[in-house]
């Protein structure tokens, strides 16, 4: 058997047809999908692109089941922790506007109907439940400092206004003002200020914890300390990205350092949230490259441990890594416009089946429109040919926020699926995620 030619019959035997990506649909009553969830504490729900409607809807279906049937009370997203607090306020207390909250987290990827609909479902689920039994919704990312700076100012204004007066200039210096890291010309100045500011704030909050709790609350004090950590991690990340962007050399170790900082922080934040939330499970929504078990790779030898690598080390078999694959279709991404190669915009792009990878082709050969591959179960069953195929590098289509349709080969990534994922969702034909804003091109 060629490693490029999977044992289709065995692969089909371990692939369950789901019929639909509709988030309101129930999971199959019996089978590997429910079985894998039963023992999982951390469920990493990936995506092969950041702009595929069906991926988002399937994750909504998955999360609804975890919340309603398995008492999961924590959903986390690849977005900045402080900025997602507005979304959490709406989900937990019904305060604010969900679309405005989504618009405030900087990520066009989540500013779509499918995410908004999940937020509305979580709010409806929480509405009649006691406060301690409501689902919480938080971000785990550390790409920005602005939200943490704003939230710290609010906290210190109430808990320690004298300290705020002393540290406010440094807070202003570390504030990235919502600018993406590669555009932050002041990242070095921010890093210098953070070197003194972070330990100063962290020590002060710990030393005055009881007084701060009395002035605010236990939650506010804990979050304030976490905001300091976000500033620390985000500043390091932003400096690494700026240096990477300035160097322009993919063989340099700067890209790996940036990925290392960010993914380490994402795993730390997920574990921290799970420890302080009254639940035994967390549903973690991010890209496949963040959540696989084996590490991050981008087109070249640039590599680093993924958040999933660290979560797998920490939680073992209680970490469930769910990847995503598709046969072809549409999604949205930042891509060159059709009339000017040097101009990029958020728009609809498409990938024909001939440009996806061998792994995607293999799942397409099972004949299902929407399906779930139980990788862990296939390996446990001991079918040698299938295990061998899953254990060898296999290409799949995977891209992040940017994509150039003129070079689809750049979006092909290799995984040893036996090591990288415990399960994979497959969608045969995809469509673009539907933006809430009308600003993006069709």
From TrEMBL:
The record's listing under CDD domains reads: Ere-like
Query: Where is the sequence biased in composition, kind Polar residues?
Result: 1-18
- What InterPro entries does the annotation carry? Emycin_Estase, Hydrolase/PRTase-associated, UCP036794_erythomycin
Q: Where are the transmembrane segments?
A: none
Task: For the region Disordered, give the residue spans.
Answer: 1-31
The signal sequence is none
Q: Which PANTHER family match?
A: ESTERASE, PUTATIVE (AFU_ORTHOLOGUE AFUA_1G05850)-RELATED
| Identification of the protein by name | Erythromycin esterase family protein
| Organism for this UniProt entry | Halorubrum miltondacostae
